[in-house]
Each structure stands twice: as C-alpha cells, then as structure tokens.
Amino acid sequence: MSKEYVVAVVGATGAVGSRMIKMLEASSLPIKEVKLLATHRSAGKILQFKSQDLTVETTTEQSFEGVDIALFSAGGSVSAKFAPYAVKSGAVVVDNTSNFRMHSDVPLVVPEVNAQALDTHNGIIACPNCSTIQMMVALEPIRQQFGLERIIVSTYQAVSGAGAKAIAETERQIQEVVNDKKDPKDVLAEILPAGGDKKHYPIAFNALPQIDVFTENDYTYEEMKMTKETKKIMADDTIAVSATCVRIPVILAHSESIYIETKTVAPIAEVKAAIANFPGAVLQDDPSQQLYPQAVTAAGHRETFVGRIRKDLDAEKGIHMWVVSDNLLKGAAWNSVQIAETLHERGLVRPTKDLKFDLI
Amino acid sequence: MSKEYVVAVVGATGAVGSRMIKMLEASSLPIKEVKLLATHRSAGKILQFKSQDLTVETTTEQSFEGVDIALFSAGGSVSAKFAPYAVKSGAVVVDNTSNFRMHSDVPLVVPEVNAQALDTHNGIIACPNCSTIQMMVALEPIRQQFGLERIIVSTYQAVSGAGAKAIAETERQIQEVVNDKKDPKDVLAEILPAGGDKKHYPIAFNALPQIDVFTENDYTYEEMKMTKETKKIMADDTIAVSATCVRIPVILAHSESIYIETKTVAPIAEVKAAIANFPGAVLQDDPSQQLYPQAVTAAGHRETFVGRIRKDLDAEKGIHMWVVSDNLLKGAAWNSVQIAETLHERGLVRPTKDLKFDLI
C-alpha cells in the first residue's frame, strides 16, 4: 500500500484555508490525517473534514512533527516564520503567500504550466499570486504553439483577494449606498485598497486602480508580481509584461482583459483549439450566443475560463482575450492542493536534507 | 445686444436630458427660452429651468420652429427621424446618439480636441460615445506633443450608460444579493448587457465583457465606436485602436485602463505637464499620496481625470494610464452643451441652407 500523508493547513479558518480543506476532501491525494493550524485566537474552533470534527490548534515551531505536506495561507509573516520549521520537521511546504515566491531556491508553480519545476524543490514550493495563475493557464497553450513576445493586462479583481475584512467592508458600504442612500464617495473605508497603506477608499460602486502598495517605479506590488512571476513561471525573462491591477465591487472571481503579442502569427481558430485542449482551461467563446466568461459563473469552479478571443485590429501578432477564474480556488486553495497532488504523483513528497531557509 | 437663443432639449426627461438642462442653467450660452421635448408618454410633465416651471411637450416634426439649437438625447431612432426636421426648421442640432456620428457630413466633436471641425457643419453635429470622449481628452495633449501610434484600452463602464432601466436593474440585483442572500448568478436580468440582445446577465457583483451587441469581427459595437470615432475625431486613420469594453457594477463614471504608444519618446514628466495644462483634463497622479482618479470622486464633475501615468516596463514609447470621467456629463450632457457654447463662440449658430439629411 502506498504511503498516506499527514497534511497540515496553516490558516485553516481563513477564506483560503477553509477552501483548502474542501479541496483536500475532493482530492486524489492519499490522506491519513488533516491537521488544522491557525493563530492562538482561532485555536479550539471545530471544523469539519469529511464529516469528521477537527479542532484547530495554534501554529508553533513544533506543529509540523509528523506532517508530510503543509499548506500555508496565513499571511507572509506566518510563512516566513513557520515554513522553515515545517521543512526542518520533514514536511514539504506549499506556500500560498508572496513570501518565498521570488526566492531562487523555491519553485513557483502552476501545475498545468511548469510541474517540472517541482522536481528540484528544496522543501518549499510557492503558489503564485491569484491574478498571475489564471493568466498563466490561459496563455501557456498559446506560448507553447506560437511563442509569447509581450503581455499587457488590465485586471478586474474581486475584493475577496483582500480577505474577509474586505468582503465585509464591501457589503457594508453597498448596503449604506443602496439601503441608506449614502453617496458612494462618503461611505466609511478602512481596509481597501490596501490594508497596510495610509489612505482607504470606498469600493462600493467604484473601481480602485491600486492593489497592494506602490513600488518605486509607480507600479503597485500586485502589478509587479504579475510581471516577475510570469517570467519565473514561464522560465523566460524576455517576455514583456506590464499590468494595471484594479479592484472592483465583485466578491468572487478575478476577470482580466489580456492583450498579447505572439512570436509567430497565431490563427484565432488554432488559439481557441489550443486553449480548449489545455488542462484546467475552459473555452467560453461564442459571440453569436453571447458566450463569454463571467465572474458570477466562474465562482465556485476550479477551471480558468477564456473567451472574447480576437485579433487585434492592427497588430498582425496581437490577440485580445478575457480570462476569468475563482481567485480563491485556482487563484489559491485549488492551485495549492493541486501542487500537493502533483508532488505526490511525481514522488516528491519527502523530507528535505539541505535546509535552504533561515529559522527565525 | 447679441442674439439670445431658443434651445430645445429632446429627451428632456431622461438621465442625460435632465443633466443637459442643468448644464444649460450653468452655461455661458445666451438663452432666451428652453423648450423641453420628449415622447408622448412624458408630455405634460413639469420640469424646472432656472426656477421656472416648463411643461414637457411631445416631439413632432413641427416642434423646432423658432428653435436655434436642438440638443438630442432620446435614442438613435428619434434623432434619425426628427433631427433633419430640426435642421430644416433652421436649428443647429447637437446629437448625443450614435445615429449620425460616422456620417461624412457630420462633425464628431470633443470641443477641447477638434472644435475646428464645427466650422464646416451642415446643421448636425454629433457628440461622440461616452467612452471615446474621455479617452480623447486624456490623449489629445499627448498626441499634440509626441504623436500617437496606437491605443489599447480596457474599459470599466458604469451602468448609467445603459439608461435608467439598467440603473434600476443593478440596484435591485444588488439588494437581492446583499439583503436577500441570493447567489449573484441567480438574480433576474432583463436589461444588461445590451437591451436589444437575446440574452441578459446579472451585473451585480459581476463584470460583463459586452457593451452593445457584437459586430461581425467579434468586437462589440461599443468597442468599434472607440476605434472609429477616435480616428475621426483625431482626423488620423493611421492611429491603431483596439478596445475591450466591460460593464461593471458602478452607477456613475467610466474608468479606462489605457495603453498608448507615442511616435516619439515621451518623458513621463512632460506627459503629466501636458495633461495638467490641457483644458478639461485634471491630473490626479501621485502614488506617494495614493492619488489617482476614481469613479466615485469623478461623478458629478465635468472634467476628465487622469492618473497612474507610467512608462511601460519594456516598450520605450509605451505609456499606461487610468482615465475617469462622469459618463453622463463629459460623456454626454456636458459635451453636448459645450458644443453648443463653442458653436456660439465661433458664430456658427445659424440655419443650414443645403439640407444633407433625409426627411423620413
């Protein structure tokens, strides 16, 4: 009988953590035991895994003894502190935060795109940013056949990407405008656009062209994540990527308006076929039937939906498309569990001897 | 004493018409009388102009006798039918519908950009599509200094662009989700994405990549309007323009993520200065202060707000920006009244002798 794993979920009570539990329930991974970890504040809570009651425990440096796979989604600082202890304890870490993504010893993986990057892992594998993941699923089939010269992307991102507090803030603001007839510009804002930034703005009936804080080049960190992570995942520094990341009043599922230029001319019918045949991608593209991806229909699904595929009106190698996926599933929980499944399939769930990450 | 005008507003009871009346109240145009016209259904309604009660009348072929300027915003079919009678009666028509925009005898005007096109008018002047107008105000100062090679635009458009019924539908759907806990994908949709199309989809907590119906090339009419109108307004068929037009759950003000390539390298500081100095444009761009345009702060204002201006990360002549304006003011009512003001200033409010448009 093949080995069965002890799987830890760090940040089990959060929006992504709870979905990781659901994805593990439906997973092909042979699971012996699930261990739920969170902050001291959430310890003692009872959550279900396959109708079984599990008690949430406080994450400590000792929590990972006997753990084979640890899924982290409790914020960058929690990963920074505890992931190295998990590796030291013999676990393989799949980290859903940005903390290790650009670390040269950490593979950054979208299984449909670069599963082979897992083969040389050093105990920690990073799950890319939600907005990057769905773009990779949509573009990899095109890159494989026609090459990829450049990407210009404008996002329409859901508030759930900023956490439970951002969802609550959005719903409260919308109620104040719709029920209490407040002017949208006058509702109280305390979370968005970025929890850690100085100023906060309403999201209800608004579009905020800031996700995460600004970097020195006047792009935001979210925008630079899309640029840097794309180059790392596709293992090609020459792909030009510029992003404009925007938050809109949607709860679940990110939408993206993507423009690409391919290296060779890509006939639209072949692009559509490539996407339709790519694992994890679903082609929804029929203007005559008004068929295109939508946030409300993508929510709750693990696939990435692609439509509105059409030639640029002028650039011979230019193509536009509309890409939608559930930011908490393929954008986070599902991609993490899928990485764990792929590690298992490739025989890569094993202790790491040469510890590359500092214990702090 | 200079002449004072009789000004007719056709579609006076609509969202744009009511704003035209407000813009006329604040206008520098010498106004003798305002005449309010609408459908038979709205006739008899009392509206205010400068604290004066005015009764709405039914639009007929005879309504324009004695009218000097007629502002039309009652739908393309109303303009098609009545605008030629208004011209025949001696009025100058400013038409806010798409009906005459691409007609070779009709100037398509954003006063800050191409007021000179008014000089050869033949009785009808067209007001461009809302999404085009604000893009023109943002890009013309750049075009003047650095030339314009191409434009790639993704829009974030408010539901008010689809009329009062779309606003009501949006608010109802949002209430059903927020108050009645309905799943966003299950709310009743009867109007959006396009009143005249077969299928309708929810807009609450959604982003719909369809505005107006699809054309044969898989772009929507809204997207093709941005392409064709830009070339006509800037009087340059060589500018490459491809658009992706998206409706989001915002009531007022369109936002646009615009990428351009200039003909000569445009230093960002000079681009910002050009926009700041351009009439009708307001620069809101300071990442260190999280200053950028927003729909909720642009609503109710006549200006076009521009920010997030930054170099593309790879293309030497590539620039990204974020452009926001009130779609019912600069996008419709204000641009129309501003055209009327400009006609007056240039001495162009006069009867047209050579009638170019068919009476039907």
How would you describe what is shown here?
2 copies of one chain form a homodimer. The first copy, chain A, has helices at 15-25, 76-88, 111-114, 130-146, 164-178, 221-233, 268-276, 295-298, 329-345, and strands at 5-10, 31-38, 46-49, 52-55, 57-58, 69-72, 92-95, 124-126, 150-156, 240-244, 254-261, 281-283, 304-311, 318-325. Chain A has 360 residues and is of the alpha/beta class. Chain A folds into 2 domains: 5-127 and 333-345, NAD(P)-binding Rossmann-like Domain (Rossmann fold), CATH 3.40.50; 132-327, Dihydrodipicolinate Reductase, domain 2 (2-Layer Sandwich), CATH 3.30.360. Chain A has a 6-stranded parallel beta sheet with strand order 5-2-1-6-7-8, with helices on both faces. Chain A is globular. In chain A, 58% of the residues are buried. The model of chain A has no long low-confidence stretch (mean pLDDT 97). Chains A and B meet through strand 9, helix 5, strand 10, strand 11 and helix 8 of A and strand 9, helix 5, strand 10, strand 11 and helix 8 of B.
Query: What is the typical, i.e. mean, pLDDT of chain A?
Result: 97
**Distance between the first and last residues' Cα of chain A:** 38 Å
> Approximately what portion of the residues of chain A adopt beta-strand conformation?
15-25%
Architecture of the largest domain in chain A, according to CATH? 2-Layer Sandwich
What portion of residues of chain A is helical?
25-40%
Task: Give the helix/strand class of chain A.
Answer: alpha/beta
- The secondary-structure element order of chain A is EHEEEEEHEHEHEHHEEHEHEEH
Which spans of chain A have pLDDT < 50 for at least 5 consecutive residues? none
Q: Could you please say which CATH topology of the largest domain in chain A applies here?
A: Dihydrodipicolinate Reductase, domain 2
Which CATH C-level class of the largest domain in chain A is it?
Alpha Beta
CA-based shape of chain A? globular
Give the spatial strand order of the biggest sheet of chain A.
5-2-1-6-7-8
List the chains of the largest interface with their residue counts.
Answer: A-B, 64 and 64 residues
Catalytic activity (chains A, B): L-aspartate 4-semialdehyde + phosphate + NADP(+) = 4-phospho-L-aspartate + NADPH + H(+)
Domain Semialdehyde dehydrogenase NAD-binding (chains A, B): 6-121
Pfam families (chains A, B): Semialdhyde_dh, Semialdhyde_dhC
Binding site for NADP(+) (chains A, B): 13-16, 41-42, 160-161, 327
